[in-house]
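Marked as duplicate of an earlier ticket. Keeping the data here for the record.
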Amino acid sequence: MPRFLPSRIVSLFSLFAVVFSFVLPSVTEGGTRSDKRVFAIVDIDRIGRERLVQLQALEGLDWWIEADDEMLVIGQPVMLANLARAGYASRPLTGEIDQENLYLLLGRDAEASGARVLVRGGRTAVIVATPEQKARIESDFDRDSDVAHGHNEVRAFVPNLSLAHQAANSRSRQPESWDVAIQALVDSVDGNRWFGNIQTLGQWNRNSRQPGNVTARDWLVGQFQSIPGLAVTTQSFTIPGSPSVTSNNVIATLTGTTRPDEWYIVGGHFDSTSQSVATAAPGCEDNASGSAGVLELARIFAAHPPEATIIFVCYSGEEQGLHGGTAHAASLVSANNDDKVQAVLTMDMIGYTGDADLDCLLETNASGQFLIDAYSAAAAQYTTLRIVSSLNPFGSDHVPYLNRGMAALLTIENDWDSYPDYHRTTDTANNITIDMGLQTLRMNVAALAKMIASGPAGTGSDTIGVYDPATSNFFLRNSNSAGAADLTFGFGAGGAGYLPLSGDWNGDGSDSIGLYDPVSGVFFLKNTNSPGGADLAFNFGPTGLGWKPLVGDWDGNGTDTIGLYNPATGTFFLRNSNAPGAADLAFGYGPAGATPVSGDWDGNGTDTIGIYIPATSTYFLRNSSTPGVADLVFSFGAGGAGYLPAVGDWNGDGADTAGLYQPSGGSFFLRNANSPGSAALVFGYGPPAGMISLRGDWDNL
């Protein structure tokens, strides 16, 4: 089988930038212009998932930005009254805001440019900046400087976006079961030992161009070598600049006892910087705290040898542009070892808190949502941390791995942006709160121990199947590989033009099949994968008009329901119950004539929509079932080659990703990330002509 490569269509991306662009009127917050739009900040601190969703759908609200304990909203003047009527605490903003001057800022220091911060969540803020102020912020990003890896990065504004999300406002999940051995590992975290290592590292100027960096490197090598069971090496790389310099990562490998080819990476950068690196750069919070944390986890897990391999990495060159993390991530790809990596867990600034609220930010992208879930569960069980999460990664050593398709998570204290000694010669150990670091390390130990003990990734994953419309036979397989069907049965009338469906209609955790009759507009759903009559039969939508059926858990309640897509207008009609009635959600997205898809792209437990353009083999996926711009745009496969989209959770990480099915060859091409790249799985299944592909978790495993 030839290697399956993506096609990149720049012109189509430009087209969709226009098609999916949003129009936001120029507004005055006090409503003095004719369009009468108002801005407000709403208190959403621990209000719960139901109240959060209700707020987003409030009458008069046009768009929102979620930011930890606050939500920025804009809407018609009636919105303010509706907020009060619904019991939400809010405050209107004052002053004029021009929508053309709204931006997203990843980083801090917007105020220094004169820009106005409307709301901040995680490491992203919505700012109002004139062209001059924007240019001033961007001018701070100098790749030849010692702080050049994007601590200030300006991006285009996007509405209906979560900058940071409180765990308390997530939908409730089943409680985790924890092995008693995990408690013993958690209890072995030594906060005083961790703090002592911070003090040691803080005595050296660890800037990557200073001699103290080499001294710290050698000290870390000696510390890892003193731990039984670790194989210690260094990795050299070049940091460009005037002059360029060679620096080193310190890498310590603890080989797994039974699953050595299943890798978990624990990392944190040991280099530091300040406003005067020639004078001092103690970097105790940024980031002796994280690299000392790596050392602490190495001591704990080496004393309790894990089944899977853990690779401990202390990076250098982070402050000059993520050079150490990039070098290590690139080496994994070049050696074809990136497929072994189950998760990359980085720690950066884990010991400072500005108040009594010990709040910790978990940051990744959509592919790492399962890591947020794992860490949030560990924090709830073993710590006093308040957890905030963000799917807007930037500026630390998790990013090079994410950019290369590996799931990676950053742990960082949520007060990082208000730390007064950030990148200063005064970033010393007296600013560290031991309990903040202790709680963060307990969470890291518990989450990693749980993931390692749970076995390789892949359980709870979707697998493929095909449907023969001529005979109405289903052929379902419990693994994504070539082979015989695990389940074969007939359902419905062969040759009647029905379209196959699959979903968890009753919320039992297993997917089963169904059929849609486009002539009558009737859905026939079955709760078991076996012959027999339909468990649910109902009409939804118009008949005989060529509309296409959809399936998804649109409201995040654990049960899949149906929907329809009108290709003539590019409109989605989604229903939250499997019964006759009107659509609960109706909206247009993308151009007419596309192929609709649905899935949980960001792993948050709710399915949303997307479209696929066959001519260019391009996906446009959205993280909410609303009009707006695509959150993910990428090409995968050969455009115009007759492939059909196939999306599912192929690796059991909780997020659905792209795939393709080639009916003429009977081949599946499945990818574990929503990004350009080659297929992770390529195999033939079923007869090569006339079949329709399916996907589902048929065996609830």
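See parent ticket for discussion. DSSP finds twelve helices and 40 strands in the chain.
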